[in-house]
């Protein structure tokens, strides 16, 4: 637009100058040329007529002055040229002798010629012509030049600009069209970028937690690795975190609840990590962490912080959870120099942590020798159960009031021919996943009851506690199977306690209540195992008609150091007593804890401090030296609790 304005101004000035020049020069030219012409004409006529008169004078020197009539006829009037020339003849004294034609109106233009007789001037002839026609003509030419100037001004000024405006308009139109096209293309590009960003985000992030996923973790590792590759002193670690018993949560409380748990756990882990460390979700309940500048020691400290933070109560949909996780660590360069190697070693270390109930485990050479493939392990487990190859250990339970042994918990054990002892946490989960938990539980129940019969025959009356998986509780045949076994071994239900976890009950509270009622009718006691880390509500506990709460060992192990655990344990004991429930504490590892629980009126105690789970032969030897509730074995009824830890 600026350019158009400038062009307009320049063109207007130019065309105005041309128009003015036309207006000025055409009339001026006309006048000048006309004047010149008139002058010439007059000069010619005056000379011609002077010559004519001069000849008359020569032929009649005396009378020419009186023969004016003759002259009038002879003088060229130039009428043919439509010119009214007036001639005035005068003598040498300037006296006008006569005039020919009409005296012209002023302004006039005149030309003089001499009347010569034999070379002597005898008079003058003045030819006069009016300038008015010339002036009129000049005026007309002025009007004409005005018209011409206007036309030229218009043509030069208006027409090109009309065309220019049209061109500009078209340009503007095509420019706006182009702009629309460019905008559309930009929008498409922006949308494409958004879509591709979203696709990249989706490909590299986990939908649920919005954390980076395995692919992103691999990329981040590669980037970090290439940054530190040249630095010989570089150290960093990889952690793999796996939530314990997550499957149980999923199975029992449903996947949406499990999802919320995963989200809450991911937030907890993220909060404990420095910004520079990358946290990724690499599987269902598996997280990986890239500790960019931590060696083994710092990584272990960080891992402990993570398990502690996850252990602190998490509230999910109104349920107070205390979750546990296992962490495996591998450090660069000691445990590997490639991503695959470090990940594999961290995974093996995590598996060892689970196996050994250590929560945090850093990789050591030789660990992989013990790292079985889970599929092979499941097949082996199936075979072992079918062949009766599992073992049953017994861990005694003590009355905290009297210090006497009141019962045992039957705990399954599996020693793999190649990998050695496999942790129950692992093979029970495998059995649940493979659907062989029913035959496993059946074997445990039958073996435990057979053992009870054997003890009864020896005069030993011990309550038998058997762990029941959530899958067993869902099995409609379960109550009937237990009843059949009790009948088969001619045992009272009262001597049997079935330990169920809170989550297995909460899966289908209505069905659980029904099932527990059925078991109670058989006289069987029901205990809520691992109480505190699950999701029980007091309302259900009341309805459930359970007999016992077994506080989870994670609250008991740290009882002396953790004020929160003390509050939970104390209030659980009080609450359970108010509901007429017995309280068992598992995981007692020292005298102080034992005494504290005794002070707090806990009913039953179980733990390594008192006695480890023992195979049947060792248990037989051990029990022979103990006080048994309500009876004396080998006359040792006066033994006190301080002497219990014999093994
Ligand atoms: P649980 O029923 O809570 O069993 C108690 C666990 O605590 C046992 O681990 C026992 O060895 C361990 N324990 C005993 N005293 C202490 C102590 O002082 N400190 C510590 N830290 N731990 C102690 P175990 O035998 O490894 O069993 C682990 C879990 O595996 C059991 O937890 C139970 O849930 C499951 N399990 C074991 N046997 C069976 C079974 O026959 N059937 C089913 N369904 N589950 C079983
Ligand atoms: Mg148990
Ligand atoms: Mg337990």
Q: Which short descriptors sum up this protein?
A:
alpha/beta, 647 residues, Alpha-Beta Plaits, 52% helix, 19% strand, binds ligand C2E, 21 strands, binds magnesium ion, disordered C terminus, TIM Barrel
Structure description:
The chain is an alpha/beta fold. It has 3 domains: 2-201, no CATH class; 214-370, 2-Layer Sandwich (Alpha-Beta Plaits), CATH 3.30.70; 382-646, TIM Barrel, CATH 3.20.20. An 8-stranded mixed β-barrel has the order 12-13-15-16-17-18-19-20, surrounded by 4 helices. Strands 6-7-5-10-11 form a 5-stranded mixed beta sheet, sandwiched between helices. Strand 12 and strand 13 (405-416) form a beta hairpin. The model is unreliable at 632-647 (pLDDT under 50). One magnesium ion (MG) binds at residues 409, 467, 499, 529.
Distance between the termini: 102 Å
| Radius of gyration based on Cα positions | 62 Å
CATH architecture of the largest domain: Alpha-Beta Barrel
Q: Largest beta sheet, briefly? A: 8 strands, mixed, barrel
Secondary structure: helix percent: 40-55%
Class derived from helix and strand content: alpha/beta
Ligand roster: ligand C2E, magnesium ion
Please state the overall shape, judged from the principal axes of the Cα atoms.
rod-shaped
Query: Helix count, per DSSP?
Result: 20
Task: Output the CATH topology of the largest domain.
Answer: TIM Barrel
Instruction: Write out the strand line-up for the largest beta sheet, numbering strands in chain order.
Output: 12-13-15-16-17-18-19-20
Percent range for β-strand residues: 15-25%
Are there runs of 5+ residues with pLDDT below 50, and where?
632-647
Q: Write the CATH homologous superfamily of the largest domain.
A: EAL domain
Number of strands: 21
The CATH class label of the largest domain is Alpha Beta
What is the number of domains? 3
Mean pLDDT: 85
